[in-house]
Specification:
- The complex is a heterodimer.
- By secondary structure, chain A is mostly beta strands.
- Chain A is built from no helices and eleven strands.
- In chain A, the strands form two sheets. In chain A, strands 2, 4, 5, 6, 9, 10 and 11 form a seven-stranded mixed β-sheet that branches. A four-stranded antiparallel β-sheet of chain A has the order 1-3-8-7, with no helix packed on it.
- In chain B, β7 and β8 form a beta hairpin.
- At the A-B interface, β4, β5, β9 and β10 of A face β4, β5, β9 and β10 of B.
């Protein structure tokens, strides 16, 4: 157990729907990062939050949004889902370093 | 634009031999490099890192080499063990940025 908890582990939903992925960071970590891994692709950076504030943004689609709550857990909201959004979504946390601790991911399948 | 490249999608190595995984980068602002290991159904786990002020970092069976002029780094695993079979991701960061840029990964298979 890495200490980073992601729920749900698997999600199957239809095109056009909206889903929310949840991440609880490791105790004491203030930074949360979201990454997307599509088939045969590397980990693509989506967004970073630090202590509740957005810190950095990657190639995150406008249909996607995220937030970090006062208890430091984070949610990634994906809306108007398309088949191409099917991927593994990873959350990671860190304490002001780049040595991230990753969760085990959420596998999203859009049908 | 793939700033971190792992050109070998897969690699097979006999148990006990040396495994060498390669990574190239294009962004000269990167100054910190990491390797992560990923087993199926798990998230990546941090393995070893190197700062641009060094050219080598060793941790047990794992050694990372950095060649800044060639913008190339490599991970050496010796001796290779069956438990080393996994996908290895190279990652980089720079300019005080906490964001990591990852390569596409290399699947290492250790043959018993």
């Amino acid at each position: 157990d890495s200490g980073v908890t992601q729920t749900p582990k698997h999600l199957i939903t239809a095109t056009g729907q909206r889903v929310t992925l949840r991440c609880s960071p490791r105790s004491g970590d203030l930074s949360v990062y979201w990454y997307q891994q599509s088939l045969d692709q590397g980990l693509q950076f989506l967004i970073q939050y630090y202590n509740g504030e957005e810190r950095a943004k990657g190639n995150i689609l406008e249909r996607f949004s995220a937030q970090q709550f006062p208890d430091l857990h984070s949610e990634l909201n994906l809306s108007s889902l398309e088949l191409g959004d099917s991927a593994l979504y990873f959350c990671a946390s860190s304490r002001r370093t780049v040595e991230y601790t990753f969760g085990s991911g959420t596998r999203l399948t859009v049908v | 634009d793939q700033q971190v490249k792992q050109n070998s999608p897969s690699l097979s190595v006999q148990e006990g031999r040396i495994s060498i995984l390669n990574c190239d980068y294009t962004n000269s602002m990167f100054d910190y490099f990491l390797w992560y290991k990923k087993y199926p159904a798990e998230g990546p786990t941090f393995l070893i890192s190197i700062s641009s002020i060094k050219d080598k970092n060793e941790d047990g069976r794992f050694t990372v080499f950095l060649n800044k002029s060639a913008k190339h780094l490599s991970l050496h695993i010796v001796p290779s063990q069956p438990g080393d079979s996994a996908v290895y991701f190279c990652a980089a960061s720079g300019s005080g940025n906490e964001k990591l840029t990852f390569g596409t990964g290399t699947r290492l298979t250790i043959i018993p």
